[in-house]
Amino acid sequence: MPKIAVLQMTSGIDPWVNFETIRDAAFSAQEGGAEILFTPEMSLLLDRNRKRAAEHVMSETESRYVKMLSNLAEETELYIALGSMPVATDRKLWANRSMLFWPSGEAPQTYDKIHMFDVDLVTGESWRESNAYLAGNRVFSEDITVTRMTKDGDEDEIFRLGLTVCYDVRFPALFEELGRRKCDVIAIPAAFTVPTGRDHWHVMMRARAIESSAFVVAAAQVGEHEDGRKTYGHSLVIDPWGEVLLDMGGEEAGLAFVDIDLGRIAEVRAQLPSLANKREIPK
User: Alpha-carbon distance 10 to 221, whole Å?
Assistant: First the structure.
């Protein structure tokens, strides 16, 4: 039964300060017996002032933080699922990139957020993510090997991890594909606004877990940030039946642990085989 660690953050405009928070969490996760640490969307830099943020945004190969996170994963012997960070591309736009770092210290595997948050809220907030970010064009799923003794006496346990980012949660087809790929755990790191979080966060996260018959891990940003925004928090872990195993609340940053019973996935998929029963809708 793998143990995961979930980091709820109030990220600011200084990547170094944010990295130190992740670093401290990684060592705490290691000490707590976790195999993987999940962090929120824009863990390393949360700044809607693009001119100011540009000083810290560079390509993945040029970023010192990518190398530092690889070293951190190797030092702590953890997988680190970095919710996302802004990365420069060969276009004028950036990528909102999620990264999976390996205990072996090898280069991370990546997923670029597919769906752009372009909305006008009734509160007067207006967001145009597509003005700054380039949409991704591929789905991510990858096997993770957890090296620990299981109840059957085996040393290795494997689960398939799917990566998404924040606004992706509103597009069920992506999660249907991750379910079709038999993902056991799906990460949905986020920096949700308070109004949308209050009305939609829990119901959508539970729906995505139920639809994909998988665990959902939603590490979130929380509170008031240096750039003036407020985020909803309530980092969640939800099982394939839709049961909320963890809710970190909407007030404070912190680290929490959850044991993931992978056997629960087979139970749910046998009881409600919706993925196996799916048919094409007649046109």
Answer: 5
Do 238 and 6 touch, CB atoms closer than 8 A? no
Can 183 be counted among the known catalytic residues?
Answer: no
Query: pLDDT for 132-164, tens place per residue?
Result: 888 889 998 888 887 665 556 666 788 999 999
Residue count of the chain, please give it: 283
E-strand stretches of 89-204? 94-101, 109-112, 118-120, 126-128, 140-147, 156-163, 185-187
Largest CA distance in the chain: 57
**Pairing mode of beta strands 36-38, 3-8:** parallel
Q: Which of 60, 113, 157, 183 is catalytic?
A: 113
Which residue, 26, 157, 12, 132, is CA-closest to 79? 26
Evaluate if pTM is beyond 0.90. Answer: yes
How far apart, in whole angstroms, are the C-alpha atoms of residue 40 and residue 91? Answer: 25
From the candidates 35, 41, 60, 157, give the one annotated as an active-site residue. 41
pLDDT value of position 278: 67
pLDDT in the model for residue 152 = 64
> Of 35, 157, 166, 183, which is the active-site residue?
166
The full DSSP string for 228-282 is S-EEE---EEE-TTS-EEEE--SS--EEEEEE--THHHHHHHHHS-HHHH--PPP
Token pair recorded at residue 253: 């940053």
Pairing of strands 236-238, 244-247: antiparallel
Would you call 41 a catalytic residue per the annotation? yes
H/E stretch holding 199: helix 194-212
Tally of CB atoms within 10 A around 49: 11
Structure-token pair, residue 227: 């750039």
